Amino acid sequence: MRDVLTSLEKWWAEGRSIALATVVGTFRSAPRQPGASMLVGPEGEAVGSVSGGCVEGAVYELGNEILEGADPTLQRYGVSDDDAFAVGLTCGGILDVFVEQVDRETFPQLGEIAEAIRGHRPVATATIVSGPGVGRRLVVWPDRVEGSLGSDRLDDAVRDDVRGLLAAGRTTLVTYGTEGERRGEGLGIFVESFAPAPRLIVFGAIDFAAAVARIGTFLGMRVTVCDARPVFATSSRFPEAHEVVVEWPHRYLAAEAEAGRIDGRTALAVLTHDPKFDVPLLEVALRLPEIGYIGAMGSRRTHDDRLDRLREAGVTEAELERMSSPIGLDLGARTPEETAVSIAAEMIARQWGGNGTPLSGREGPIHGDSNVEPGIRAAELASGPR
């Protein structure tokens, strides 16, 4: 919903009805992830995409039916035959798309959700997409809930699980029994997490940092540039960063971690390649288990010297293995912009389990298993990380 929120909120605020189509499940080489959305507007406008063009026509027709009074519907789209023009995904994937009518009556919390998203405050929605009560919705904040899925028992179970998913920034389909049994079946509930954007903290106010900040913003991350030297750490030098901080890097990172602003979706790009800055910083970073990516720039010689200094500081071999150094994938990069692409490529590969090899040299689905997440049982959430 995030990708169509501007248009959705505008029509909702005007008191108009919109058909909202959301990808709730993907299988094999599906082109969009759960949460991708498309709108059919009050005047027949189409906004957004659920498949990159494969099934939008069919979804548009279904959206019009919803606006004419049809019930909320979960529809599966996949390859139907060998005709590339048939309704289906010619890439070989399968999408489950939930289509519902949205207006001020069916979704009264939308305005507050939009405000939370703009303010970088976490919120999630849990919507029944299959089973009894299709279309019922629970809106979950860290400290309260609104709406209901039909019973207190079900609401309580879903609320607790959704808060765990929201903390991890996960959007997925979860299955329950009709009374909230975590090992049951019968209800498919789509949880869409609107967690704050993942963070990219760039340490070192150098020319490469400007390019890394720019590509981080392009990827939808919230970018901070930090350097202890005020003459270099200025907003005018890094206009595309969300914030520029003048502070010793290790102190800043430790304070952010203490304040709870570092999590598993945080990426660190250490570009200082100066031991008086990066060794104390990496001592802190490598001992914070929740950081998702830690990359450090430097030559092979700088890398070896850095490892020696970190070992002398007591950093263990297991902790050192969490560091990507030298930073980035081998793309033959030379310029700051090319180097930024190399760093971003490594962050993406770490996130989704890619290995950086050319797709032309691989066989099988392009996306592999990285986007295959059918409805997980709520019991799996209760038992901890999968």
TrEMBL record:
Residues 200-347 form the XdhC Rossmann domain. Residues 354-386 are annotated as: Disordered. Residues 11-78, 117-177 form the XdhC- CoxI domain. Transmembrane segments: none annotated. Pfam families: XdhC_C, XdhC_CoxI. This is XdhC family protein. The lineage of its organism: Bacteria, Bacillati, Actinomycetota, Actinomycetes, Pseudonocardiales.
